[in-house]
Hints:
Layout: E1 5-7, H1 10-18, H2 23-34, E2 36-38, H3 41-51
Parallel strand pairs: 1-2
Amino acid sequence: MSKLRLVIDTNIFISALLSKKSNPFKVVNFAFKYHIFLSSQETISEFKKVIFRKKFDKYF
């Protein structure tokens, strides 16, 4: 099976970081293990902006 190139939405990625028992975590984990993860500078910027919101202080 050839590796797929995948882009994961910022919301899914953050949800995966919040809980290892969540479906988003399973998807992200599978993607990193078996496929090629792609990202853009815009997605990385969005992730940084969202992750530093006050509501996430208790998680990170």
